[in-house]
Specification:
mainly alpha, 91 residues
């Protein structure tokens, strides 16, 4: 059988075992090389995942703090208006 360029095509299992073993070895080497090249990227992504979890926790903590600050600001504003003799808070 031939490919589109006229080269003989041999399917695995139809040739000798040594050629197949050599091909498997090359594939394993390529896989190891790809794994080594991408290990740094995987570490960066894992660190980013941890950073986003930290930001999520900080966001959950910040919501009540902002709410308390808003209420506190209004109380200080209302007290200042009351002490200055102006009874209507929103004028």
């Amino acid at each position: 059988m031939q490919d589109d360029y006229g080269n003989a095509v041999r399917y695995p299992g139809t040739g000798d075992i040594a050629a197949l073993a050599e091909r498997v070895e090359r594939v394993e080497e390529t896989t190891k090389r790809i794994e080594e090249n991408t290990s740094d990227l995987i570490e960066v992504l894992a660190a980013a995942k941890g950073a986003f979890k930290t930001l999520e926790v900080l966001g959950k903590i910040a919501r009540p703090i902002v709410w308390i600050g808003t209420v506190g600001s209004f109380v200080v504003y209302a007290w200042a208006r009351f002490k200055s003799g102006i009874g209507d808070l929103f004028n």
